[in-house]
């Protein structure tokens, strides 16, 4: 099954290589990996999805912790979480197809970010299956180009593990009770 | 924060040696070259003794042998490029056997990095999967903290190799040195885990309900320094102890509860005991494939308790019922007061019965055919050296297994060998490291004719450093263990295993080492005595039976109880099952 890990790492050169190398060496198959900044400049945050059973997932967590630069690992697979992927899709849109494509984009609450005589570029953010759904309906028109960021994930609710574990003065910013699915 | 101690201005190279000295290091093993020259130049201001090796692989094995003999961190030094890449085998060896070493490599100037400059290699990239951690240092101001972190990471938790790559300009430029301000900053590093209370309770429950328990004693006992605790535990609970190769010495060979070595070349009764057990207590071992045989049939009726410092080892190979993640010594301290004495004489008696016919298959008891067998050599060596403080350093192959079977180790750190990686060429340099770490110990290299020739250049290091190291070459003119596999599994097609060797005694003489050749059993003891009496290094070339075989043997992928046994005229069956 697909496991989603949130991994906090020290923001230092080479850390991404260490994490990627670990997955390669232990023959764990990364489905997606994203990395970016956090509210603390010295900490980067990765969202990694991996196909693994329960025991494997535990070993992945333990192996990640063996990397000296890894600060915190959370397996949020079975926790309430917001999971988002972003895609930009360039679709062939001739004069007669254009209105259909725009309509489909609006059904999926996607935005048109570039318009050219023969194409439209649509930006969509959402869970992976939502993006897959849009992609399916756009394909007949001709997808010229597509890019996806891979997923980023965050637990719902107030709890901030990084704050609890690593200390964070801004802990109170998160509000409880606003965790409705969007 | 403590008051800031007054700093003084030093070069990165000066800081390097100052920090290494402050970490308690007295000897380093290395080989100079362009990118590390500033560090070598600064060595003149240091009290550290530098051992000049003949190949950088040797430096890493020496640092490793030093670490294993003493429990302290060993240090190896090399230049950039080929100097650094020559270290890779030694680093991987230390990694798989959890040996704490710090490798210092020079790197081209920071402005040249990435330009394919002369002798530039991305050594942190190359060693990433075979180090516990590694660093690239590009500023003199980073040297102190990095060295402190490197030593701390190398020796804490599950120990391992750490490489520090320092650019030439970082060695040359100066900055303020302040030891106290350069404390390790490792917010993500947690080497000090301990089990939860309920896990202790579950473990005790399994221990008290077990009828046929066995302790599997591994290298972790020696690293943790838990020999007394393991002994007390085994005696109090009445549980027999089986050893891994690297666990040899963790529990006295002469102890009545010691069963001997388990695994591929373990004693038959040890493997049978494990297969019949209802509880395995794994103490600082990792269920390597060489000790389990096929996992499908491994200890099928046994519950498993795994005491292990590295959480990534839990459930890796063998699914365990109760993991106790923590330092073995501390965990046993917690358990010991609650362990009940239980009479397990029935179980111990049944193990004695398992020993059965094993003794008559033993080569020591077979009729003397006039040939010299490796087992004779090792057994005689043991008898001659057992009284003193002896460290035997073995290489990899048949002689390594015979040493494990026929040399009875009573003390920890008295056998040093490459287990996990199985690195041929390890023994000679590792023995140099062991002798440097423990000059009062009698150090014997037991090495095959194949492995000896991989690192024999270090004979010169022995002579140059005036080290009293005794070398026993178990010379059978073959890559013996590979030949054995060919005999069993490749229809005796001895492809690329016969060796045409030089006259090792003459070779030793050429280095200025007293050397002799022995080809009869009656000459073994006189040769060993001669070597012990001589105050310089000695090399003995033991010409042993060419096509001898290590028994018993669990074939790769076979079940642990399916052993190929030594054919015997007295016992007709060739295999047990």
| CATH superfamily membership of the largest domain in chain A | ACT domain
Summed up, the domain count of chain A is 2
Q: Could you tell me the number of beta strands of chain A? A: 9
Structural class of chain A: alpha+beta
* Distinct helical segment count of chain B: 24
Main sheet summary of chain A: 5 strands, antiparallel
Structure, described:
The complex is a heterodimer of chains A (182) and B (577). With 182 residues, chain A is of the alpha+beta class. Chain A has helices at residues 15-25, 54-66, 98-107, 128-138, 161-166, and strands at 2-10, 30-37, 43-51, 70-75, 81-92, 111-116, 119-126, 143-148, 152-155. In chain A, strand 2 and strand 3 form a beta hairpin. Chain B has 3 domains: 8-182, Thiamin diphosphate (ThDP)-binding fold, Pyr/PP domains (Rossmann fold, 3-Layer(aba) Sandwich), CATH 3.40.50; 197-355, Rossmann fold; 372-544, Thiamin diphosphate (ThDP)-binding fold, Pyr/PP domains (Rossmann fold), CATH 3.40.50.970. In chain B, strands 3-2-4-5-7-6 form a 6-stranded parallel β-sheet, sandwiched between helices. Chain B has a 6-stranded parallel β-sheet with strand order 11-10-9-12-13-14, with helices on both faces. Residues 570-577 of chain B have low confidence and may be disordered. In chain B, helix 12 packs across helix 15. Chain B is built from 24 helices and 22 strands. Chain B is of the alpha/beta class and 577 residues long. The radius of gyration of chain B is 25 Å and the shape is globular. The interface between A and B is medium-sized, with 22 and 20 residues.
How does the SSE layout of this entry go?
The complex is a heterodimer of chains A (about 180) and B (about 575).
Chain A: E1 2-10, H1 15-25, E2 30-37, E3 43-51, H2 54-66, E4 70-75, E5 81-92, H3 98-107, E6 111-116, E7 119-126, H4 128-138, E8 143-148, E9 152-155, H5 161-166
Antiparallel strand pairs in A: 1-3, 1-4, 2-3, 5-7, 5-8, 5-9, 6-7
Chain B: E1 8-11, H1 12-22, E2 27-30, H2 37-42, E3 49-52, H3 56-70, E4 74-78, H4 82-85, H5 88-96, E5 101-107, H6 123-127, E6 133-137, H7 143-155, E7 162-167, H8 168-172, E8 174-177, H9 197-209, E9 213-217, H10 219-224, H11 227-237, E10 241-243, E11 258-261, H12 268-276, E12 279-283, H13 289-292, E13 303-308, E14 322-325, H14 328-335, H15 345-355, H16 358-361, H17 374-385, E15 390-394, H18 398-406, E16 415-417, H19 427-437, E17 442-448, H20 449-455, H21 459-464, E18 469-475, H22 480-489, H23 504-510, E19 514-518, H24 524-533, E20 538-543, E21 553-554, E22 563-564
Parallel strand pairs in B: 2-3, 2-4, 4-5, 5-7, 6-7, 9-10, 9-12, 10-11, 12-13, 13-14, 15-16, 15-17, 17-18, 18-20, 19-20
Antiparallel strand pairs in B: 1-8, 21-22
Helix pairs in contact in B: 1-7, 3-5, 3-19, 12-15, 17-18, 17-24
């Amino acid at each position: 099954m697909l496991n989603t890990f949130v991994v906090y790492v020290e923001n230092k050169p080479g850390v991404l290589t260490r994490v990627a190398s670990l997955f390669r060496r232990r023959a764990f198959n990364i489905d997606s990996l994203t990395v970016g900044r956090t509210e603390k400049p010295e900490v980067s945050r990765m969202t990694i999805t991996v196909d693994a059973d329960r025991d494997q997932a535990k070993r992945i967590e333990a192996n990640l912790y063996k990397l000296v630069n890894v600060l915190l690992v959370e397996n949020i697979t079975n926790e309430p979480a917001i999971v988002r992927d972003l895609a930009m899709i360039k679709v062939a849109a001739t004069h007669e197809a254009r209105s259909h494509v725009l309509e489909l984009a609006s059904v999926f609450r996607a935005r048109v970010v570039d318009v050219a005589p023969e194409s439209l570029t649509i930006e969509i953010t959402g869970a992976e299956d939502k993006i897959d759904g849009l992609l399916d309906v756009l394909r007949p028109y001709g997808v010229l180009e597509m890019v996806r960021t891979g997923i980023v994930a965050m637990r719902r609710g107030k709890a901030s593990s990084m704050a609890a574990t690593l200390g964070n003065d801004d802990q109170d910013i998160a509000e409880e009770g606003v965790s409705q699915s969007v | 924060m403590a008051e800031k101690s007054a700093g003084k201005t030093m070069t990165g190279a000066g800081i390097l040696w100052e920090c290494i000295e402050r970490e308690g290091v007295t000897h380093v093993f290395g080989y100079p070259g362009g990118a590390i020259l500033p560090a070598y130049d600064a060595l003149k201001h240091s009290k550290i003794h530098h051992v000049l090796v003949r190949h950088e692989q040797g430096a890493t094995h020496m640092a490793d042998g030093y670490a294993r003999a003493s429990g302290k961190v060993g240090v190896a030094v090399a230049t950039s490029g080929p100097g650094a890449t020559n270290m890779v085998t030694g680093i991987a060896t230390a990694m798989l056997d959890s040996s704490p070493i710090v490798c210092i490599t020079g790197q081209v100037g920071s402005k040249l990095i990435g330009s394919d400059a002369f002798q530039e290699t991305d050594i942190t990239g190359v060693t990433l999967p075979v180090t516990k951690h590694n660093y690239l240092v590009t500023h003199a101001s980073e040297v102190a903290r990095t060295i402190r972190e490197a030593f701390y990471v190398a020796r804490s938790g599950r120990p391992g190799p750490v490489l520090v790559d320092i650019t030439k300009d970082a060695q040359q430029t100066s900055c303020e040195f302040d030891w106290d301000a350069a404390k390790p900053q490792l917010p993500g590093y947690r080497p000090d885990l301990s089990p939860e209370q309920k896990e202790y309770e579950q473990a005790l429950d399994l221990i008290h309900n077990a009828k046929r328990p066995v302790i599997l004693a591994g290298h972790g006992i020696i690293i943790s320094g838990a020999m007394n605790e393991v002994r007390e535990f085994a005696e109090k609970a009445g549980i027999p102890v089986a050893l891994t190769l690297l666990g040899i010495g963790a529990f006295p060979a002469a102890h009545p509860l010691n069963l001997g070595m388990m695994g591929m070349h373990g004693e038959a009764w040890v493997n049978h005991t494990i297969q019949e057990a209802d509880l395995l207590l794994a103490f600082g071992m990792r269920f390597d494939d060489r000790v389990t045989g096929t996992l499908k049939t491994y200890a099928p009726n046994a519950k498993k308790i795994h005491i292990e410092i590295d959480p990534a080892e839990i459930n890796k190979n063998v699914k365990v019922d109760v993991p106790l993640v923590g330092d073995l010594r501390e965990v046993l301290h917690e358990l010991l007061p609650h362990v009940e004495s239980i009479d397990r004489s029935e179980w111990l008696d049944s193990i004695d019965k398992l020993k059965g016919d094993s003794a008559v298959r033993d080569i020591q008891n077979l009729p003397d055919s006039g040939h010299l067998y490796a087992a004779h050599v090792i057994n005689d060596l043991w008898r001659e050296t057992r009284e003193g403080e002896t460290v035997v350093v073995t290489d990899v192959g048949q002689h390594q297994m015979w040493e494990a079977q026929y040399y009875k180790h009573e003390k920890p750190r008295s056998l040093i060998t490459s287990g996990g990686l199985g690195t041929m060429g390890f023994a000679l340099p590792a023995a140099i490291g062991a002798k440097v770490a423990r000059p009062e110990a009698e150090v014997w290299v037991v090495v095959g004719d194949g492995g000896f020739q991989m690192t024999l250049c270090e004979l010169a290091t022995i002579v140059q450093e005036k080290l009293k190291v005794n070398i026993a070459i178990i010379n059978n003119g073959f890559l013996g263990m590979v030949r054995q596999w060919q005999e069993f599994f490749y229809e005796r097609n001895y492809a690329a295993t016969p060796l045409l060797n030089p006259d090792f005694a003459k070779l030793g003489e050429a280095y200025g080492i007293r050397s002799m050749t022995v080809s009869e059993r009656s000459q073994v003891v006189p040769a060993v005595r001669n070597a012990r009496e001589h105050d310089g290094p000695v090399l003995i070339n033991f010409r042993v039976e060419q096509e001898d075989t290590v028994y018993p043997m669990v074939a790769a992928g076979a079940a642990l109880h399916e052993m190929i046994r030594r054919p015997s005229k007295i016992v007709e069956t060739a295999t047990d099952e």
